[in-house]
Amino acid sequence: MFKRFWSPGGSLGSLEREVMDVVWSGGSYTVRDVQARVQKPIAYTTVMTTLDRLYKKGLVIRTRSGRAFHYEPAQSREQFEAGVATRVVNGLIARRTGAAMPILSNLVDAVGRQDGALDLLEALETLVREKRRRIERGEEDR
């Protein structure tokens, strides 16, 4: 069973995620470099196809060097994960069915269960207050 992750260009399968983990580790990689670094034995052509898919989704940048391509991330892991979170939350809020309340409630609950929960909750509250002020001043589009 494949676990899927959302990306701006669709979703990532488990192999795509493994390949991205290698690419996100820093540097510039050829198909062979990635093949050598994934956790399980995998065919060169499978890695090549996966990198091509990631390129078409806009998640990697490729540069030709001789006969080979070198691949680098188009965005950091943090930017990717922030984009995933934004798409999920925006999708729930866009439905206007109250679907956002459970996710917001779960976010607060999850933050409350972490080590340093009071500091995290204070930081979340500060973000909410700052956002509210910017909206009230007309500095932010709603």
Give a nutshell description of this structure.
The chain has six helices and four strands, in the order E-E-H-H-H-E-E-H-H-H. With 142 residues, the chain is α+β, with helices and mostly antiparallel strands. Helix 1 (14-24) packs across helix 3 (44-56) and helix 2 packs across helix 3.
Structure classification = alpha+beta
The helix fraction, in percent, is 55-70%
| Shape, per Cα inertia axes | elongated
Instruction: Sketch the topology as an H/E string, one letter per element.
Output: EEHHHEEHHH
Total helix count?
6
Topology:
Blueprint: E1 5-7, E2 10-12, H1 14-24, H2 31-37, H3 44-56, E3 60-65, E4 68-73, H4 77-94, H5 100-112, H6 117-136
Antiparallel strand pairs: 1-2, 3-4
Helix pairs in contact: 1-3, 2-3
Structure description:
There is one protein chain. The chain folds into two domains: 5-73, Orthogonal Bundle (Arc Repressor Mutant, subunit A), CATH 1.10.10.10; 95-136. Strand 3 and strand 4 form a beta hairpin. A two-stranded antiparallel sheet has the order 1-2. A two-stranded antiparallel ribbon has the order 3-4. The termini are far apart. It has six helices and four strands; from the N terminus they run ββαααββααα. The radius of gyration is 19 Å and the shape is elongated. The mean pLDDT is 86. Helices cover 58% and strands 13% of the residues.
